[in-house]
Automatic annotation (TrEMBL):
<dbReference type="InterPro" id="IPR006016">
    <property type="entry name" value="UspA"/>
</dbReference>
<dbReference type="InterPro" id="IPR014729">
    <property type="entry name" value="Rossmann-like_a/b/a_fold"/>
</dbReference>
<dbReference type="Pfam" id="PF00582">
    <property type="entry name" value="Usp"/>
</dbReference>
<comment type="similarity">
    <text>Belongs to the universal stress protein A family.</text>
</comment>
<feature type="domain" description="UspA">
    <location>
        <begin position="2"/>
        <end position="150"/>
    </location>
</feature>
<protein>
    <submittedName>
        <fullName>Nucleotide-binding universal stress protein, UspA family</fullName>
    </submittedName>
</protein>
Length: 152
């Protein structure tokens, strides 16, 4: 069994990876962590350096995710794409044909403390009522089963 996990190193992505490892431990599927670095809207030098910084950070996050999965005795690898996250994840499913695609619902809740959490309360409530744009896009278009894990 091959499980593809949309992974960006965020709190929700890390929780999703841990949940999948717990849920599927007896089956020991191979895991493919996929990250998509979004291209800058214009080609200025400043945007290019910001993109490279984001790309490098995402690559490190993917490597940390794989290390965590391997520590838990799972076979794991990474795939790093560039462009729109929705389309990049869809193309990855078409290319790698996983048995299951897993994404964590995006939350506007920061990884930080109680003050930051209270400032985003209203946005979080709206987020709980709807799918995010990536979730919604993939739910309509992915040709493999899709598991959307709620944000805590």
């Amino acid at each position: 069994m091959k499980i593809m996990i949309a992974y960006d190193g965020s709190r929700n992505a890390k929780l999703a990876l841990a949940q999948i490892i717990d849920m599927f431990r007896p089956m020991k599927p191979s895991l493919l962590l996929v990250g998509v670095a979004e291209n800058p809207r214009d080609a200025t030098d400043a945007n290019e350096s910001l993109f490279q910084e984001e790309y490098d950070e995402l690559k490190r996050a993917l490597e940390e995710g794989v290390a965590f999965a391997q520590k838990e005795e799972f076979e794991a690898e990474t795939l790093l794409a560039e462009g729109d996250a929705r389309k990049g994840l869809l193309q990855a499913t078409q290319k790698k044909t996983p048995d299951l695609l897993v994404i964590a619902r995006h939350s506007h809740k920061p990884d930080g403390g109680i003050i930051a959490q209270s400032l985003t309360y209203f946005v979080d409530e709206l987020d709980y009522m709807t799918f995010g744009s990536v979730s919604s896009f993939l739910a309509r278009r992915a040709e493999c089963p899709l598991l959307i894990l709620p944000s805590p």
